[in-house]
Write a structure and sequence with these properties.
This protein has 139 residues and is of the alpha/beta class. The chain has 4 helices and 7 strands; from the N terminus they run E-H-E-H-E-E-H-H-E-E-E. Bound molecules: adenosine-5'-diphosphate and magnesium ion.
Length: 139
């Protein structure tokens, strides 16, 4: 499918978009959330996690410090922002997670292309104004 672009004008709209995108994801998928700090990656992840029925939005937080959040056996949310070296990422056991029949959302995963499985889906997020975001899916 060609890339699809959406515009959102608030945090709530991005969460709602995430919920609807959840319905388009295969039950097994690695999804790279790509964009600068503040672009809305964690916000979109909240919506996707809610759309998958894995957790309530208020229970989804940024894994910046914990690196990996597991929302039940079928949804993972990973943030590699704090890691600089491939060898650090290699200690996380991501291969094991990638083998699961689960949706795996990853922030900053594109920085470690060698460790990301081929065929991963991508969502690009860009801030276009204070509260506006352009969100492009390659699926
Ligand atoms: P990231 O994980 O990419 O660093 P976050 O999702 O943690 O970004 O933060 C996005 C910030 O931008 C939040 O403070 C959110 O309230 C704000 N924001 C403003 N407008 C939007 C929008 N349209 N979509 C998503 N977040 C928005
Ligand atoms: Mg984040």
């Amino acid at each position: 499918m060609p890339a699809q672009t959406y515009l959102t004008r608030s945090e709530e709209e991005t969460i709602a978009l995430g919920e609807s995108l959840a319905g388009r994801l295969p039950s097994r998928a690695v999804v790279l959330l790509i964009g600068n700090l503040g672009a809305g990656k964690t916000t979109l992840a909240k919506g996707i996690v809610r759309g998958l029925g894995a957790a309530r939005t208020e229970d989804v937080s940024s894994p910046t410090f914990t690196l990996i959040h597991e929302y039940g056996p079928k949804v993972y949310h990973i943030d590699l922002y704090r890691l600089d070296e491939e060898r650090e990422v290699e200690t996380l056991g991501l291969e094991e997670i990638f083998e699961k029949n689960a949706v795996v959302l990853i922030e900053w995963g594109e920085r470690f292309p060698r460790l990301i499985p081929p065929g991963s889906l991508e969502i690009q997020l860009e801030q276009t104004a204070d509260d506006a975001r352009r969100i492009t899916c390659n699926f």
